[in-house]
Design goal:
734 residues; alpha/beta; six-stranded mixed beta barrel; 26 strands
Amino acid sequence: MLFGRGKKNPVKMADKGVVEWKYATCGYCSTGCSIEVGLDQAGTPVASRGVGGADVNRGKLCLKGLFEHELFESAGRGKEPLMRNHYHENWQTTDWDTALDKVHDGIREVQEKYGRDSVAIISTGQMLTEEFYTLGKLTRGLIGTNNYDGNTTLCMSSAVSGYKRSFGSDGPPGCYEDFEHTDCLIAWGSNLPEQHPIIYWRLKEAMEKRDFPLIVVDPRVTMLAQNADMHLTITPGTDVVLQNALMHVILKEGLEDRDYIDANTNGIEELEAEVTNYDPVTASKICGIDEDTIQNVARLFAEAGAAMQIWTMGINQSTHGSDGVVGINNLALITGNIGKPGGTSLSITGQCNAMGTREWSSCSGLPNYRLLENPQDREDVAKFWNVDPEFFPKKRGLYQTDIYPAIETGQIKGLWLIATNPMSSLPNTARVRKAMEKLEFCVVQDCYEDTESAQYAHIYLPAGTWAEKEGVMTNTERRVNVVKPVTRPHGNSKPDLWIFNQVAKRFNKEGKVTFPDAAPDIFLEMGELSKGRLADISGMTHEKIEHNRGIQWPYTDQQANRGEAPPKGGKRLYTEDATFRYPDGKAKLIPLPFIDNNEVPDEKFPFWLNTGRLIEHWHGRTKTGKLGNNNKYSPIPFIELNPDAAADLGIKSGEYVRLVSRRSDAIVMAQLTQRVAKNMIFLPFHFHDCANRLTLGLLDPHSRQPAYKQSAVRIERIKDQKAAAKLSMEMRKF
């Protein structure tokens, strides 16, 4: 053969000198991959690999997981507590006792001066569940502020709200195994190959075995859309219109499951009356999908033996996000596609432990999906924690996205940020910056000391990250998996759990509330509190979870006591022997009138701005931007721009351009591609001082989640390309 082309070169694997592998669960997205970190002779983490016996990933990892071991010694890690009197001053190193005393004193001083709710606490989907639970106990039981939320409001609040409105409780009803049983799948605003690569592998493997149709609803030609049987390029923000049109066809043609509707739902008459307004011809003029396609998709979905829907941020991050989730649930309910193999509405969660914070953090209520509005829930938790039930508020406080306007107006004077960076992640960051400047007291607790939000802190607490700590996380399919400590925390940083317990001692001087030190003991306490509830974990222990490579809830102590093994991968909610969580056991079918309050392109701002994720990066790049094997693929912000639009503007591929919205501007590099329409651009959200300088702060009325994906911008040429390149480089510095 010419030049030896018929001969394959052997694959060579670098010998990292691994002498021991330690078990953990990946700390990036919500897939929940079991991972092992390899240590060399010196005990240094040098490699990562997937766990072959784990049901979720079966030995596979994505690009981020493969290099996750590099996080521990990455640049910018905090080593010592820091303090200062004003954010203009330089940091001074201090000891832990002094810093923690100041956290306690600063919170109490603000509360005594301005009231209990004048302090806000914002956590994250990145911590371990025992840490969430402990912080919730500290906040609800001792500190007492009602303005307590998580950054999961930015990604999953609409899913939570939609599930609660439809089913009476949060909690995804399906599982990954449903891919292997479904006869039709609609993906709404979800790009699995880049957002959740291992879930995409599970989907693709199932499609190769069973050849079911995949329908993708997305304004952009994503990787998932390129592999779909049908791609519906919907007008941004009009998913509810398409959902109503699909239901119009299903109900008009008698394709619904009337027996299931009668037995399991309320509200069909009101729903039918609303969807009569959305015949395919009328709907097509709003959502941009032609009437024939609407009819074909409706019939395909309704006539399938089992039909499945998944969604991610394309639905959630909208002023109609919660309604979009309800619309998905409506479609599932009227066709009987809840609680059976292959039939589900499955929210693909964002962060690694966003489900854990939904279940246990007490941000929106009390532990294990309990409600502050429910007197019995307040009584039960108060008794369990040994606090006065009257100390609890009687309704939830401000969402994260409402906290910053409250800082502007002086309602909130103190802020404790934990493993989140609103200066990068919130929309309209110029407004957020002005709010942060007004704080009288700000604590930032993070594994990295160089986050943008730390610029405005009075106290910095260096925290451990991921597998420097011990605890559990819950993934998209309600699977609880364990993280074991792989290495000690960096420098003099401490695990978040240790920090919370030390702060709790200062608020709990009488010792009335118990705070266990060890994560396995906290997990057992949580199990007691979960007994008999939807998210029952009372049959689990850390050891059993690790042995099974993750266990889906519910798994009860009764099941464990009679020797019943946890199910491998097919645990579903709302099956024949279970009911929905409303008092009558029925789900609600909710009519969804469409109110067009999107920011839309016009003559001055003629392009839709769509934002999203890249496979190599994670959220604000606080982690992946410092790992060479991740950052090298996209070290600077760029946009996908249609070549015809670029030609009209005189823009060449690789040139820097300025994006301008009604809020601010940003400099990005133009990449020309047919993946976006001529009147649209796609901008990855990972880069600080870029995407969220432009995005709109409009919020969903139910979930208070921002509309990151429906903004309007214009594109301006930049004459001085060298100056633009220099500015882009300077803005990427950490």
